[in-house]
Amino acid sequence: MLAEPTRILDADGSPVSEVEHELDTVRYLYRSMVTARIFDRKASALQRQGRLATYAPFEGQEASQIGTAASLKEEDWLVASYRDAAAMNLHGYPWELLLAGRMGDERGGHTPEGINVLPPSITVGGHMIHAAGIAWAQKIKKNNAIAVTIFGDGATSEGDFHEAMNFAGVFELPMIFVCQNNGWAISTPRERQTASETIAQKAHAYGFTGVLVDGNDVLAVDQVIRHSIDRARQGKGPTLVEALTYRIRGHTTADDHSRYREKTHIESWRRNDPLNRVQKFLKAHDAWSAQWQSEIEQSASSQIEHAVTRAENLAPFDVGEIFSGSFAELTPTLLEQRQEAEGYDS
Amino acid sequence: MRTLNMAQALRDAHDVALEDPRVVILGEDIGRAGGVFRVTDGLQQRHGSDRVIDTPVSESGIVGTAYGMAIAGLRPIVEIQFLGFVYPAYDQIVSHVARIRNRSQHRFTAPMVIRLPYGAGIGAAEHHSESTEAIFTHIAGLKVVVASTPENAKGLLLAALEDPDPVIFLEPIRLYRSTTGDVAEGHYITPIGESVTIQRGDDVTLIAYGAMIRETLQAANLLESVGVSAEVIDLQTLVPLDSELILKSVKRTGRAVLVHEAPRTGGVGAEIAAQIQAQALYSLLAPIERVTGWDLVVPLRKAEHHYIPSVERITAAARRTLES
Ligand SMILES: Cc1ncc(C[n+]2csc(CCOP(=O)(O)OP(=O)(O)O)c2C)c(N)n1
Description:
The complex is a heterodimer of chains A (346) and B (324).
Chain A lengths: L22 H26 L13 H8 L7 E3 L5 H6 L4 H8 L25 H13 L6 E6 L6 H12 L4 E7 L2 E2 L2 E2 L12 H4 L3 E6 L3 H16 L5 E6 L18 H8 L3 H11 L5 H23 L19 H13 L2
Parallel strand pairs in A: 1-2, 2-3, 3-7, 6-7
Antiparallel strand pairs in A: 4-5
Helix pairs in contact in A: 1-2, 1-10, 1-11, 2-8, 4-11, 5-6
Chain B lengths: L1 E4 H12 L5 E5 L15 H5 L4 E3 L4 H13 L3 E5 L10 H8 L2 H4 L9 E6 L15 H4 L5 E4 L3 H13 L4 E6 L7 E4 L12 E4 L4 E5 L3 H14 L4 E5 L2 E3 L3 H11 L2 E8 L4 H13 L8 E5 L17 H13 L1
Parallel strand pairs in B: 2-3, 2-4, 4-5, 5-7, 6-7, 10-11, 10-13, 13-14
Antiparallel strand pairs in B: 1-8, 6-12, 9-11
Helix pairs in contact in B: 1-7, 3-4, 8-11, 9-10
C-alpha cells in the first residue's frame, strides 16, 4: 500500500486538512506559480521561434517548485537542475539569466552576488552531493543556513544519489532533498527507476525521515518544507521530501512524448493542475478576482518580456572571450591559443 | 545498397547485430523512445525488451552490468546518451572493463561496445558537445573507434562487436542526419585498426577523424583550387593507430596537419606527432601542424563556432607547412 501523501487542498481546492496559511501567503504562492507558468510558456515559445535552444518545461510542477523555495531564507542555499527555473527564480536567480543559459550564453551561469543558488545542473544526479557539502560547511561554520537540493525521480538511480543521502545521514547535515517525482525520466516511467514503492521511503535506509507530499498542492509542499527547514535548523538532520507531480509537457522541446505515453494520462493530470486548485480555494475565500488575475498576469508578462530583451541583448562573445572562463589567470598555453584564435577571427 | 544517414546506418547495424542471440543493447530511453538520436528506433518492438533494454538513469550501473554480462558470455552494446554523461561510468570503464583481461590473465574478458555520441555543432546544452576521446585513448585495454560516414559507422559497429576486447565507439552528433551514403545490406565489417586514405595528394597529408572529416575535405578542396595537392586520411580507429598508413603518407608528402575537435593538450594529434617525428623525421619538410579545439570547455551555442576547427584554420595550417 502506497503511503498517503500529505495534502491540504484537493484537486478542487477544498481543504482536506487544516489550512495553516494566511490568505496573503496563499495569494503570494499563487502569484508565484502564475508567474512561473508564464515564464515556462514564454521559454517554450522562444524555443519554437529559434530564439532559445532546447528547453525543459516544468508545466504541472509549479507547486513543487514554488512550495520548495517559498520559505527559504536568503542565506539558505538552493542546488537544483535544468527543470527547476521556478524554484531557482523564487530564491533569487534572475529570469534573464535562466533564459541566457538556455540561449547558449555562458553568462547565464553567473549567479548574482549574494544569491545562494548554483547554476542549474545539466548532468543528472551529480549535484545533490554538492548541497550536502554546502550544508556541511554551514554546520562546520556554525551558520544557521541550510541547503536544499531538487532533482527528479530519474536522478535517484544515479550512484551519486546514494552517496549524497549517505553523507547527509552520517553527518546529520542541515539539508533537504526534494525529489520532484514527475512520473517520468524522459521516456522511462518511475516504476523502471526503482522497485521501491516510494522514493520517500529510501530515507529510512539512510537513517533519516522521508515524507511523501502531493506535489501539485503548493500549501502542502510549503508546509512539509517548512517543517523540514525547522528540523534542519534545529540540528535534527536532513529530510527527503518526495513531491508527487507530473510533467505535463515533453521532457524537453526536442522530445516527442507521444511515443511513450498516453494522451489520456496527461489529460487526467491536467485536472490536477496546481494553479487551478489554489484559484478555486481563493475564490471560495473571496480572495480572488478576475481583475487581480489579469493584473498579476500582466505584471508577470512584462517582467518576463523585459528579461527576454535583456538576455537577447547580451553582446555576442568574441573569440577571445571564450577563453576568459577557464582559469583565474590564463596559462601560457591558453594565452598562446587565444592569440592564435584571434588571428582567425576576421 | 540503400542510401541512409548515419543514424539509420547505425540502426541497421544494430538490427543485424541482434541476429546474434548473445547481443543485448542497454541504455537510457533506447527502447520505446528509440534513443535520443533514434539510433535504436523500432528495435525493441522487433527484438523484445529483454534484448533492447531501457535502463534506469545510471551510467555506472549500465556499464557495470554490461561488464558482468560480457564476462558471462553475452555481447552487450551500451548506449550512453551523450559522451558528456559517461563520466559516472568512467570508474567502471577504467578500473574494470579495460583491465579484466590483464587482471585475470585472459581467464575473463569483457568484449563489449560502449557507444558515445560526441562533438559540438548542434548548439546543444552544456555537457552535450564534448570531444574528450583522449580520456579513453589514454587507457590501456580499450580500443577506440570513430565513425565518419554511414558506411563506416555500420561496418565499425559490427567489427567492434566481433572484437575480443572492449571498444569505445564514438559517433559524431552533427553527422547523424547531415551525412548520407550508400550502405550495404546485411553483415560486413570495417576493420578496427585500419585507417583509410579518402583523398590522394602529394604535397601535404591532412589527418582527421569523425566529424572533422567534413571540414578537412573542404579544406583539401580549397587547397586544390590554389594548386596544393592534399592527401586526406580518415583515421577511423584511434587505438590501435594505423601508424603504417600514416607514416607512409607523411614520408611521401613530407608535411602533416593533424586535425581534431578535441582540445589540443594531450590529444590524439600529440601521439601522432610523436610517432611521426620518431619515425619520419628526416622526411619532414616542415614542422607538424595541429589544428584542434582549444584547451577549453566547449562554449555554448552562441560561441561554439569559435571553438570547432574551421576550414579556414585547416587550410591556413596546410599552407604554413608549404611556406617553410
Ligand atoms: C549523467 C546524465 N545522464 C543522462 C542524462 C540525460 N538526461 C537528461 S534528463 C534525463 C532524465 C532525468 O529524469 P529525472 O531525474 O526524473 O528528471 P526530469 O527530467 O523528469 O525532471 C536524462 C536521462 C544527463 N543529463 N546526465
